[in-house]
Amino acid sequence: MAVPHLECLQKCVHELHAQLHQHYHEFQASPVAYLHSKHDCVRAEVIEHFKNATTYENVILTTLGNFLSFIHNLFADGIQNTFRFHARKVTKKILNIPFIKAKVDKETGAVIEKIQNDIIVRMPGTQIFGTLPKEGMTNKEVITEMSKYHDMKRTFWEQGRVSGAVYHGGKELTDLQAEAFSQFTVANQLHPDVFPGVRKMESEVVAMVLALFHGPEGSCGTSTSGGTESLLLTSLAAKMKAYNERGITHPEIIAPITVHAGFDKAAYYFGMKLRHAPVDPKTMKVDLKAVRRMVNKNTVLLVGSAPNYPHGIIDDIEGLSDIALKYKIPLHVDACLGSFIVPYLERAGFDKILFDFRVPGVTSISCDTHKYGFAPKGSSIIMYRTSELRHYQYFVAPDWTGGIYGSPTLAGSRPGAIMVGCWATMLSVGDNGYLESCKEIVGAARRFRKAVDQEIPDLQIIGDPRASVIAFGSDSVNIYDLSDAMSKKGWHLSTLQNPPAAHVAFTKPAVAAVDDLVADLKSCIADIKKAGNAKVEDGTAAFYGVAGSIKTAGVADRLVCGFLDGLYKL
Q1: What is the pTM of this model?
Q2: What share of the chain is helix, strand, coil (3-state, %, to 5)?
């Protein structure tokens, strides 16, 4: 065994670390040149020492390298995350062993069939259209058929029994939005020369939202199809900025474990690595010390939420800003859910929380106008501090045979009617209207929180939510059983995991339903405790039990895919 080779490897690694530490300021000034020169130097030395290594020695060195990589991930990502990552990889391989896979496939197939049967609602008197009708139907016939689907078995959001989903729904506003669709059904934002009015309205929507979030001079943005696209674009912009300006080819995003899954999707789509920072177990805000430890040469974006989707917690954006400024890394604030609530908190008499462009390190913000902005579904805004950063989300193909092509967002054609509906909504509601909505909605959320604290000892509020979303867990009842029980009473709560919990995103319709919500929670908890917390074999509890278990890693993925397949079954 050639021990000198191992000693040399250790020496090279220690030397590289020492050089990086010693020349930190040089690295900050010119990271690409610095890393390139040091990489070549060390690489040449390693090659020289190991060019004559035997196959056995190479196996030892490869094993050592993998072990060092494991140790690095252990310190960077934490013991729990590292363990779960490797345990799931091993379990997935075991589940692919033929005789085990056959049994798993049989059992998951039965569960998937049940899931699909639950979501595929069939109603007597309705037709199934698998092919085009031979002769076109009259408008009256189409409308008659369409009207039947409105009354399919569902949760009635009109009664305020749905968490989120429908944020306004008032008839006067929906009539206005329908008129916008009627006038601009054929409009396409891809053609500003054909639809100049749509271009004007879109630019005004972006400007109005920027003003809400205190956009400085030179700030800008674009409309998108929703919050996920906004998160995809800010991730893409950060990746391309780092690649063009710093030569980063293995970009990493650092975000709280509670950040929206849109960032997981961005990492998946764009070949980035998403590194989840833990949150403080009491406040549920991102752990700033952990974020600092995780920053490295490949970090291209920091993220904070205002608030996050699971628990309605606003991260310490000012603390993240300090880190972003120190290391010269872009900082994105995900205010998709906060949208037109968080900008009004202070004026509504609640809290003064700095999270927007007034915080110097914030370089981009996402805001869903189709949530608390009450706009039609399919509208969100991604904002940037500078136009230079916005340019990195653009796509340009100057040499295309179809002509010079450019697109500001992921889509090519975009339905102009949605943006017109957004514009009309914002003008109709107005600043005072949004202020009053904030008072009503956040007021309802705080009444609910107070009732839980004082009247329902079996539930515990998670963290210190300051906006419209209130999450709760329980030490005495299975929270997923509670969610299923509430569903039977006509409620639609949002279930969460790690830890098991549920939340309510309060909306305009939900403002009047607080007392009923509290009463039904009490009733369901009493029923569950009376039944002795019997183990549930199916439903939400069973599904999340599968999803959260290392022993069933990969099975939850199949169940989700089965659910998604069911969306397209006749």
Answers
A1: 0.84
A2: 55, 10, 35
